[in-house]
């Protein structure tokens, strides 16, 4: 299996070559702390929107800011390795900024995707992607699948 975990510099070079081949790029981002079916379905649906799926993975410090001091459960490199094993993920990179806007500007995706809890017009980077003629989409969540719910269930079972 090729190494899908890339630096920003590597991604820029790879995506430049792919765009010259008229490949459509879709971008999404997230924490993906404990991978579950909801994540898999989301990533598969996202990949179905373009030729190449690039995933921005929140760093450990970023996850702590978003989810609290008890998170992440899995370290960033472990999360990246698990995600890179998925056939629907073509490339991924880790980011530490509060938002993925810098990454979105670098990648210049044709399609920008987030989960169903985001309204398309409030997705970070939406204005940038739309200004370039791209699409912005929110993919609905599958009810009953969330990492927070899974952690809660594990804690209840361990008592």
What's the story with the biggest beta sheet? 5 strands, parallel
Indicate the overall shape. Answer: globular
Whole-angstrom Rg: 15 Å
Order of helices and strands: HEHEHHEHEHEH
Q: Your description of this structure?
A:
This protein is of the alpha/beta class and 159 residues long. It has one domain: HUPs (Rossmann fold, 3-Layer(aba) Sandwich), CATH 3.40.50. Helix content is 41%, strand content 18%. The chain is built from 7 helices and 5 strands, in the order αβαβααβαβαβα. The chain has a 5-stranded parallel β-sheet with strand order 3-2-1-4-5, sandwiched between helices. It is globular, with a radius of gyration of 15 Å. The protein starts with 7 loop residues before the first helix and ends with a helix. The relative contact order is 0.19. The model has no long low-confidence stretch (mean pLDDT 93).
Nutshell version of this structure?
With 159 residues, the protein is an alpha/beta fold.
Helix and strand topology:
Blueprint: H1 8-20, E1 25-30, H2 37-47, E2 52-58, H3 60-67, H4 76-84, E3 91-95, H5 101-107, E4 111-115, H6 126-131, E5 135-139, H7 147-157
Parallel strand pairs: 1-2, 1-4, 2-3, 4-5
Task: Spell out the key features of this protein.
alpha/beta, five-stranded parallel β-sheet, 41% helix, globular
